[in-house]
User: Fold NnrU domain-containing protein from Minwuia thermotolerans.
Amino acid sequence: MTNLAAALALLFLTHAAPSLPALRERLLARLGVRAFRIAYSLVSLAAVAWVIQAYAGAADSPWVWSPPLWARWAAVLAMPLALWLVAVRLMRPPGKGAAWLYRLVPAPASAGILLWALLHLANVGQARALLLFAVFAAIALFALVKNMLTAAPVAGSAPDRVGYRPAAAALAVWAALLALHPLVIGPDPLAWLALPG
Assistant:
């Protein structure tokens, strides 16, 4: 678990540190834009690879608790909202629609990822998974708070229309995740619905 904790600490730092304005400006001034992007990409990939290796190596980590049944309901029913928040950010960037949402949540993708991480935290009991999703939640929360503090106000004349496409995309991804989760990731999100006997 020590190896996994160190890997996740590096993953958090690769997301948090470069987004701090003062540090980012110093790195850009010293490295230049191209070299900064290359270095950042390499360090990020190395951190992800380390997390994957360390997570696999912590397969024998203890179970901390047994997730309650309500958490399974919450994950299945709330995931479309998390996916919709991410889809809105990708398909309706600031100034292109959903002005009301950006006034409420300046970083909807970070809010969606935070919700995704919290839903998973409520549904995992093994120590390695709890640590993994806790760090994902911390990364998303850091980005959300930073954007709330630094985002420019959304103009009142910005378009408010979201449209159906983000919702359609979110539902499509949700259905795909329900179908593919047991095949690609392992646990079946709907296994608890099976009746006994």
Notes: The chain has two domains: 1-60, 62-190. Residues 1-60 form one domain.
